[in-house]
Amino acid sequence: MRLCVVVPSETYLSQAGARIRYGRLRESMAAAGITLETAPLGDFKRRAALEHDAYLLSKCNDARGIMLA
């Protein structure tokens, strides 16, 4: 299974909390056969870009997050 955590921006990913949180999840989920990736919300401009099995919106508090959902 491929899971993508969608975050508001590249800047958000550079924050220590996000790096630690998703780094820990990535390791434990890989042991269960789940690939965890992160991507900024701005990367999803077309529906064709949706290639993961599931998406988790993390702190995407604007209309773009609703549109992606």
Question: What can you tell me about this protein's structure?
Answer:
With 69 residues, this protein is an alpha/beta fold. Helix content is 39%, strand content 23%. The protein has three helices and three strands. It has helices at residues 10-14, 16-31, 63-68; strands at 2-7, 35-40, 54-57. A three-stranded parallel sheet has the order 2-1-3. The longest helix has 16 residues, at 16-31. The chain is globular.
Layout of strands and helices, then pairs:
Blueprint: E1 2-7, H1 10-14, H2 16-31, E2 35-40, E3 54-57, H3 63-68
Parallel strand pairs: 1-2, 1-3
What is the mean predicted local confidence, pLDDT? 87
Listing every helix as H and every strand as E from the N terminus to the C terminus, the arrangement reads EHHEEH
Physical arrangement of strands within the biggest beta sheet: 2-1-3
The strand count comes to 3
> Which class best fits the helix and strand makeup?
alpha/beta
Q: Unreliable stretches, pLDDT < 50, 5 or more residues?
A: none
Percent of residues in helices comes to 25-40%
Rg estimate, integer Å: 12 Å
Q: What percent strand?
A: 15-25%
* Number of separate helices: 3
Q: Cα distance, first to last residue?
A: 19 Å
Largest sheet: 3 strands, parallel
Form type: globular
